[in-house]
């Protein structure tokens, strides 16, 4: 299954590959082989990048799940987060180009904050990227607390997709967007929640439990 967000990219990659494979027919053998390999590799890269596998939210109450596939590169304690309205955990998930890049809702509630911020394109694993890179902030009001998360572009990523709007009711595990070609997602939630991941852990969007609450 492939995401509709990547339809244009996949079609472009297909035509690009067909063109260069056809061109290889009139090139010298070594150049033709290299051209064919590169063209095929480019197509395969786009197909794997825009894959969109089904995910099943754990059948467990009172959980906050990961909005992204990737690796936990930083866990930080924030003294005061304005949207959380108090001390918060910050969990940073780095998404490499080989990860599934579809983003999912981490907790059910209502979208009450949505802000796109233009910026730079530092490496996504750079700590400064959360404040300087192009990003999209999303705030969800759960019935008992708030959750805040940010889609952050990376060095390669140049487009953030988010289908949410202010006032939208959202359901845990539902797709809402993606970041194209390498990125990072930072999640902030109250310190009162019980943290369920460590630095270095791998996450799966819609399935990995980041935290639990009572």
Textual characterization of the structure:
With 214 residues, the chain is α+β, with helices and mostly antiparallel strands. It has 2 domains: 46 residues; 150 residues, Glucose Permease (Domain IIA), CATH 2.70.70. It contains 3 helices and 14 strands. The strands form 3 sheets. Strands 9-5-6-7-11-3-2-13 form an 8-stranded antiparallel sheet. The chain has a 3-stranded antiparallel sheet with strand order 1-14-12, with no helix packed on it. Strands 4-10-8 form a 3-stranded antiparallel sheet, with no helix packed on it. α1 runs antiparallel to α2. The longest helix is centred in the first third of the chain and has 21 residues. It is elongated. The model has no long low-confidence stretch (mean pLDDT 89).
Q: Numbering strands along the chain, what is their spatial order in the largest sheet?
A: 9-5-6-7-11-3-2-13
CATH class of the largest domain: Mainly Beta
- Find the CATH topology of the largest domain: Glucose Permease (Domain IIA)
Low-confidence blocks of residues: none
CATH architecture of the largest domain: Distorted Sandwich
What structural category arises from helix and sheet content?
A: alpha+beta
> What about the largest sheet?
8 strands, antiparallel
- Percent of residues in β-strands: 35-45%
Mean pLDDT: 89
Number of helices: 3
Question: In angstroms, what separates the terminal alpha carbons?
Answer: 36 Å
- Number of domain modules: 2
Rg result: 19 Å
Overall geometry comes to elongated
Helix and strand pattern: HHEEEEEHEEEEEEEEE
- Count of extended strands: 14
What share of residues is helical?
Answer: 10-25%
């Amino acid at each position: 299954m492939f995401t509709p967000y990547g339809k244009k990219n996949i079609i472009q990659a297909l035509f690009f590959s067909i063109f260069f494979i056809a061109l290889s027919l009139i090139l010298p053998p070594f150049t033709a082989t290299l051209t064919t390999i590169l063209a095929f590799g480019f197509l395969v890269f786009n197909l794997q990048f825009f894959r969109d596998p089904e995910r099943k939210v754990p059948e467990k109450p009172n959980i906050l799940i990961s909005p992204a596939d990737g690796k936990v590169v930083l866990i930080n304690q924030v003294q005061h987060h304005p949207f959380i309205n108090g001390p918060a955990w910050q969990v940073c998930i780095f998404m490499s180009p080989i990860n599934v890049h579809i983003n999912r809702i981490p907790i059910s509630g209502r979208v009450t904050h949505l802000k796109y911020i233009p910026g730079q394109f530092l490496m996504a694993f750079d700590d400064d990227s959360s404040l300087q890179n192009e990003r999209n902030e999303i705030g969800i009001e759960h019935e008992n607390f708030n959750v805040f998360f940010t889609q952050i572009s990376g060095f390669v990523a140049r487009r953030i997709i988010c289908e949410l709007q202010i006032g939208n009711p959202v359901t845990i595990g539902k797709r809402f967007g993606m970041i194209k070609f390498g990125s990072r997602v930072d999640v902030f939630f109250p310190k009162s929640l019980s943290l369920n991941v460590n630095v270095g852990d791998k996450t799966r969007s819609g399935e990995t439990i980041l935290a639990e609450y009572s």
